């Protein structure tokens, strides 16, 4: 006789998306504007509550025995590696007074990690939503984003702004999210499109040091211009007052990128989608020449995409590796095909690893997918087979992290 599987109520599958940033790069920590959107690709946390006060963590992308930690042992530095992200979320929630239950958490994802698509925020936000719901805590999404960011900054030790978690938790299908990083105010901007992500698969090992250097340069530029942050420079010509050519270029990028975010919002609200394309290509030039965080594979991908008919393209993410976002006409599949062919050929000609192409469709933010996880097939259930996931996850094969 088949045994009856007893299930508690403390179970479920939660999903949080990765994100692409349409405009506004490195503007977040300068109190400026960003315009990200949630992707259809994302991360699931299949969670079952436990009777003891222990977290067990597994990831389909990180085969191996479960990582176990007692809730009361959670402290920054206690856990390193990928598990610091979900464990950090449990820690940040406890710090905020949430009664986090013991739980077994199984992660699965179709966001390529380190590709500038924020697999880290997708992971944090899926876990944050799961644990708050299991704890019966009602935390507004904006606060939840701040807690997930705290996990990344203080527990995983990665300095980053609030953009990624905001996009993952507040994203809405068919919209981009305008985020004012000074006031924290957000607004939804209609944006129905199918963009192309080109994962250059390149990672140049400069990320952490250069990120810190850019932050310091922006602070110094603001100090010399006598403003609290570069957000307060509204006339970009004012940056020419900076004597140091490097600081001048850094400040000019931040100022012009803030302008481009606001311009893109106006264009989208006016339904002038195609005109956002040239803004993307201008942003790439600014990131390459003024902020100096592009990398050869990104420059080649942008050039090849635009030459083949993309409306515009730019590198996204922190820099020195990751993805390019290209705007291709929605109603011209031949151009899309020409762009992918041209970029793949340009990479092949240089004997570079073939790029990966993904759809970027403005999609809904984090949510619960099912009340209960699918029955275990062998061992702990994986969420890959979870029903109810909305939107396509094109070209999204789980990859080793
Ligand atoms: P990005 O957020 O741009 O993808 P990050 O370096 O910020 O890149 O985050 C990637 C890190 O997040 C990975 O190295 C890993 O530690 C963690 N991570 C993300 N997704 C997963 C996953 N599905 N399973 C395990 N760890 C993950
Ligand atoms: Mg990240």
Structure write-up:
With 401 residues, the chain is of the alpha+beta class. The chain has two domains: 11-192 and 364-383, Ribosomal Protein S5, domain 2; 195-360, Alpha-Beta Plaits, CATH 3.30.70.890. It is 35% helix and 22% strand. It is built from nine helices and 13 strands. The longest helix is centred in the middle third of the chain and has 25 residues, at 245-269. The chain is globular. The two termini are 41 Å apart. The model is unreliable at 1-8 and 376-401 (pLDDT under 50). The structure holds adenosine-5'-diphosphate and magnesium ion.
Task: Give the secondary structure arrangement, pairings included.
Layout: E1 11-21, E2 33-34, E3 36-49, E4 54-59, E5 62-70, H1 84-95, E6 103-109, H2 119-135, H3 141-155, H4 163-170, E7 175-180, E8 186-190, E9 195-203, H5 207-224, H6 245-269, H7 276-290, H8 296-307, E10 312-315, E11 321-327, H9 333-349, E12 356-360, E13 367-370
Parallel strand pairs: 4-6
Antiparallel strand pairs: 1-3, 1-13, 2-7, 3-6, 4-5, 7-8, 9-11, 9-12, 10-11
Helix pairs in contact: 1-2, 1-3, 2-3, 2-4, 3-4, 5-6, 6-7, 8-9
Bound molecules: adenosine-5'-diphosphate (ADP) and magnesium ion (MG).
Magnesium ion binds near residues 118, 120, 121 and 164.
């Amino acid at each position: 006789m088949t045994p009856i599987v007893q299930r508690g109520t403390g179970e479920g599958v939660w999903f949080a998306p990765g994100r692409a940033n349409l405009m506004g790069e490195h503007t977040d920590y300068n109190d400026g504007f960003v315009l990200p959107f949630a992707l259809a690709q994302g991360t699931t946390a299949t969670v079952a509550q436990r009777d003891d006060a222990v977290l067990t963590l597994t990831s389909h992308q990180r085969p191996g025995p479960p990582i176990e930690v007692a809730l009361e042992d959670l402290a920054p530095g206690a856990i390193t590696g990928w598990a610091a992200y979900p464990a950090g979320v449990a820690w940040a929630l406890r710090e905020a007074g949430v009664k986090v239950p013991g739980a077994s958490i199984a992660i699965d994802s179709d966001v390529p990690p380190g590709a500038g698509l924020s697999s880290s925020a997708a992971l944090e936000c899926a876990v944050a939503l799961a644990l708050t719901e299991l704890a019966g805590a009602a935390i507004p999404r904006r606060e939840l984003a701040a807690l997930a960011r705290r996990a990344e900054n203080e527990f995983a030790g990665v300095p980053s702004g609030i953009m990624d978690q905001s996009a993952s938790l507040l994203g809405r299908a068919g919209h981009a999210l305008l985020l004012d990083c000074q006031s924290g105010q957000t607004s939804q901007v209609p944006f129905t499109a199918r963009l192309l992500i080109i994962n250059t698969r390149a990672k140049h090992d400069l990320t952490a040091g250069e990120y810190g250097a850019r932050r310091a340069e922006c602070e110094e530029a603001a100090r010399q211009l006598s403003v609290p942050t570069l957000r307060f420079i509204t006339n970009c010509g004012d940056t020419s007052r900076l004597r140091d050519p490097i600081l001048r270029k850094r400040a000019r990028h931040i100022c012009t990128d803030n302008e481009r975010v606001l311009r893109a919002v106006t264009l989208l609200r006016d339904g002038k989608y195609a005109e956002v394309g040239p803004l993307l290509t201008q942003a790439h030039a600014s990131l390459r020449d003024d902020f100096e965080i592009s990398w050869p594979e990104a420059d080649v991908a942008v050039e090849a995409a635009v030459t083949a008919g993309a409306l515009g393209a730019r590198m996204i993410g922190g820099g020195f590796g990751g993805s390019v976002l290209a705007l291709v006409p929605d109603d011209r599949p031949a151009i899309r095909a020409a762009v992918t062919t041209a970029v793949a050929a340009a990479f092949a000609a240089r004997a570079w690893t073939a790029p990966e192409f993904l759809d970027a469709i403005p999609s809904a933010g984090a949510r619960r997918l099912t009340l209960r996880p699918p029955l275990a097939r062998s061992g702990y259930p994986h969420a890959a087979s979870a029903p109810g996931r909305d939107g396509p996850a094109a070209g999204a094969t789980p990859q080793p992290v």
